[in-house]
Amino acid sequence: GREVTEAEEEAYFFKLSPFADRIEKLLLETDYLQPRTRAVELVNNFIKPGLEDLCISRTTFKWGIPVTFDDKHVIYVWVDALSNYISALGYLNDKYDDFDRFWPADLHMVAKDIMRFHAIIWPAMLMALDLPLPKHLAVHGWITFNGQKMSKSLGNVVDPFVLGERYGADAIRYHIMREMALGADSSFSNEIMINRINSDLANGLGNLVSRTVAMVQKYFGGTLPTERESGEFDDDLIKTATSLRAKVDDFMDKTQL
């Protein structure tokens, strides 16, 4: 509610422009970022207009990581936050020794509101350090609850452990894959969850299994006849089943769930 006033402050900047071409190629010419629409959005909104340098220090407060060569400055957010991904593994410190074991990450998954920092600034930092980038970056949408973004400040966060106890882990996994497409916002409520479980799993899959078992019991005494030989239909079914794992692995590698 206070009046906005202009202010000046001495600060250090991270020069991003030298990395613009490399990051643009990373986003547009590789499968680094999924979904593809987000990569195009980032390039058009931030790289094409000219990549602006990033303010990385402040002098108006003392809380934070001191700049080693200038004690008047402390590191400003995002540089310290992003570097946690490698410093927590042991990069340039002797407290942990997991960096070589776990870096680079196979998949980095973030929400759409922080994708610029993870798809542009973080790769530029790693390029400047001559360190490998995460192998893939997946950007997901927001999960809304009763039409609002879930957040701790709003107090509308749904505890996944409570959901697991109520519905079971497999039902939650199915609901996420069925209702929450990567990159798009999705809505959650207990009513949506229950309706999906009832319609797809109980009524759809449950009825299919029930009818199949009933027919096996009615016509074959609950067992497969020993004299039956496999036919063309069986071969097609076996081929489909054996090839399914490779397809699933490929879709998971591409975060196309």
UniProtKB/TrEMBL annotation:
Keywords: Aminoacyl-tRNA synthetase, ATP-binding, Ligase, Nucleotide-binding, Protein biosynthesis. SUPFAM superfamilies: Anticodon-binding domain of a subclass of class I aminoacyl-tRNA synthetases, Nucleotidylyl transferase. InterPro entries: Met-tRNA_synth_2, Methionyl/Leucyl_tRNA_Synth, MetRS_core, Rossmann-like_a/b/a_fold, tRNAsynth_Ia_anticodon-bd. It is an enzyme of class 6 (ligase). GO terms for biological process: methionyl-tRNA aminoacylation. Its EC number is 6.1.1.10. Residues 7-212 form the Methionyl/Leucyl tRNA synthetase domain. It holds the Pfam family tRNA-synt_1g. This is methionine--tRNA ligase. The lineage of its organism: unclassified sequences, metagenomes, organismal metagenomes.
